[in-house]
Write the structure tokens for this entry.
Amino acid sequence: MLKNYGDDEKVNPGVLKKTLVSRLASVIPQEEQEKIIHEVFSKPNSRYTAHLAKVNAEFSFSEEELTTKIKTYNDQSVFSEEEFEKSTKYSLELKDTSNVETVIVFSSITRKPQFDIETMISNPVTYHQRVRVLIKHDTKRVIVYTGDRDIFNNVLTVLTIALESAITPLDSNKTGITNMEKGSFSFDTVKFIDFIYNGLTSVGTLSQVNQIELESIKTSKQTQKVTVQGDMLLNDKSICRYLFIHARDLVGIKGVLRIDINDVEYSISFEIGLRNNRVKLGIKKDRYSIEELKMFFTLIEETFYENIAKPGLINRAVTSAKLDEIRAAALRED
């Protein structure tokens, strides 16, 4: 690697890693450092995760128009001139575009001063994040491949400014759910239960629920994670009490879905989040290839876009029956 950057000195195998890294950093250009860091650390090793959004207008830009808009934004995005304060700049890169879809890479570079006690000098340290964004033209769907809500928000803000076209999160539409249908449950819980047992199950069979997430009672970025006792949500009395008696918002779930594709059955571990007007979907990598993960992801993603933003419930009868089961479990005397 050193030879690639004009350093012919042989590497001493006995040298400390820290010393070797420092030497490499001194000869590799900053731009190349960022690419190397991205290649090593930004691959989906364990989970294929994304947040879902939508374009609120026709997406009909030519490649030339996209290139111009992105260049204009990048030219205006700069670091703060203040040497001793943390500063972040964002940029976009057009990777590919066709009549069907567009792929853009969002980059966030944060520069933070770090004081060296030995030299008494403050040296800037940079942190680099890259996120792939897929925009599907006909359906106006936007897939942002990150599980981090703050990064997702930044991506949508930058895209909206750069493309001069509003891009907003896919939101769970709870209008159309009546108080009679809701009963003692929260609107969020009713919508989520409806999606799990009518939307998600249109893709495959829900064979296991491992964990749920409840909205925090106090204002907090963290949800309350509760492990399910048994295989299914409806069998866990304590969780049913949370949802019925305490009317807590169900905002996340982890489980296993069995999907049959061309007479081949796949068992996939998934994670779904519906919180703060944000939809997050994750598929655990397990033994599957990236192409298989994309296939599973697309199936679930499509049922989200088809159902979650629509008012009311997908299937009132089934959802009402599931809520009755939760109610009965919560009141059950063991």
Summary: The first strand starts at residue 47 and ends at 55. The chain is about 35% helix and 30% strand. The radius of gyration is 24 Å. Residues 37-43 have pLDDT under 50 and may be disordered.
